[in-house]
Specification:
Alpha-Beta Plaits, alpha+beta, 236 residues, 16 strands, four-stranded antiparallel β-sheet, 2 domains, single chain, 4 helices
Amino acid sequence: MLPAGKALKVSIYLSEGASRNGASTYSTVLDFLFFRGVSGATVLKGVAGFGADHHIHTSSSVEIAERLPLKIEFIETEEKARELLPKLEELVGSGMIELQETMIAKPAQSSKTKAAPVPPHQRIEGKARMMQIYIGESDRWQGKPLHEALVRALRANDLAGATVHRGIIGFGAHGRIHKDKPFRLSPDASLTISVVDTEEKLKAFLPVMDEMVQEGLVVLSDVDVIKYAHRAVEKE
């Protein structure tokens, strides 16, 4: 893991179609960097450009360009970067390598680093509230299905859980019957999203829901929680 402080950013420029011993040059370079313990590397693909041959290459050409420019970037300590340079120069061949001094302000953390424990959701016992949101399957919010957006919003606001039920027949304010037919699902079946949580948390969510649901029905009712249990999330 790289420490905070001075470092070198290495940029390697080559063509997508460049190869070495039957393998693409960029994958060969990545393998070399990986097995030499480099902290991380990224391959960036250009959509247009020209190189030493002074020919313009673009992704709009009929040959979907094996000659588009690629750039491999990685950051390492100066000592290690310069140690790798001779082999990189050999692997890259006619490509170009650029070194740039940089400063690591915040080192990256491994995803395997033990994270701080997440506090468990407030346990619900006894009296609680149920919110049910009745909408149509074709309803949208910012171009996305409204029911999916609502579930994401409920999760983001730390509600205990939500379930979407799809109706097989029903009608709403417009009086039209919506019914599933054999081999064809109705494009506007009725959906119900059910959420059970404390009254305080549901009421805090109401302004968000009110903004998202332009047409539909929302009801709140009292419920008794008989059992509330969930499986522990497995740690990776």
